[in-house]
């Protein structure tokens, strides 16, 4: 009966979608709900580890913004979703290519879809806001560190200091 309820709920939500982005949110919601009721070991089996390592290259090669957006979409369509480490690699490469606004936008998409941020993700976001001369906004990201129970590290504080010094921060 529970399976029938979930199936009906999923198809109802699927019929309600109007945009491409909503499909990702519904798929993510459905997979999260299925994972809650699916019984499996918390420790991945050897075949699962091999499958995940074969599915995504160790470090994605991104040279353009279009490549990055395509890879991001591919990563969102994978089941199970890649770990946050893979998303961090993509965001880090985009930041090195100086697509700071795109990095912030992709991070917001990750948050909407329920992909948890870690300290490395937040450091990338702080760095992007500092490069966009929005050091004040980067302080709110520091607040997210504390809200998530994460410990800021030396990289976090160095990035903030550089953002304040170089970013003409006016308080």
From TrEMBL:
Which key words are in the record?
Repeat, Signal
- Pfam families to which the protein is assigned, alphabetical: PPR_3
Describe where the PPR repeats fall, as residue ranges on this chain. 118-152
Which InterPro entries does the annotation name? PPR_rpt (IPR002885), TPR-like_helical_dom_sf (IPR011990)
- Signal sequence span is 1-16
Q: Which PROSITE patterns match?
A: PPR
Q: Which NCBIfam families match?
A: PPR (TIGR00756)
Question: Which family does the record claim for this protein?
Answer: Belongs to the PPR family. P subfamily.
Q: What is this protein called?
A: Pentatricopeptide repeat-containing protein
């Amino acid at each position: 009966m529970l399976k029938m309820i979930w199936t009906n709920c999923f198809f109802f939500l699927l019929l309600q979608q109007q945009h491409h982005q909503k499909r990702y949110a519904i798929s993510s919601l459905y997979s999260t709900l299925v994972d809650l009721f699916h019984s499996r070991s918390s420790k991945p089996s050897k075949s699962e580890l091999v499958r995940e390592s074969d599915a995504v290259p160790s470090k994605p090669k991104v040279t353009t913004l279009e490549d990055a957006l395509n890879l991001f979409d591919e990563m969102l369509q994978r089941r199970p979703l890649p770990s946050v480490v893979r998303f961090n690699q993509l965001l880090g490469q985009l930041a090195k290519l100086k697509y700071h606004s795109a990095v912030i936008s992709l991070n917001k998409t990750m948050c909407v879809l329920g992909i948890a941020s870690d300290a490395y993700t937040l450091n990338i976001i702080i760095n992007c806001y500092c490069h966009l001369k929005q050091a004040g906004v980067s302080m709110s990201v520091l607040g997210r560190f504390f809200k998530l129970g994460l410990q800021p590290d030396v990289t976090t504080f160095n990035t903030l200091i550089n953002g304040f010094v170089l970013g003409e921060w006016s308080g």
